[in-house]
Amino acid sequence: MVQQPLAHRPQVCACLACRRHPHSSLAREHRRIKRLLASADERLRRLLAGFLAHQRGRGGITLLAQISGLDRNTVARGRRELLQGQPPAARRVRRPGAGRPRAEKKVLTCSGS
Description:
Layout: H1 16-20, H2 25-38, H3 42-56, H4 60-68, H5 72-84
Helix pairs in contact: 3-4, 3-5, 4-5
């Protein structure tokens, strides 16, 4: 069995309904949402969470943050990006310069005689 990276594993839903009734239809729906979000890259995950929050209406951002484990600001940003209609990034998930710094830096050596 292939394990997913730790960051992409579905986590336990933090909503009260799932904790009280883990076998209810609502809990099954939340598990499906978590599986869908876990299979997406970070940009698509943000956009999907924003879309689902928009579909839920009032309180949707908080609910999707609880279900997905994403920060409320991330869900709100995804919703805002969808409503603004930003064009998709050209094969990039992160903006240029974003992400972790390189582990190794190239060392330039002068080969003088």
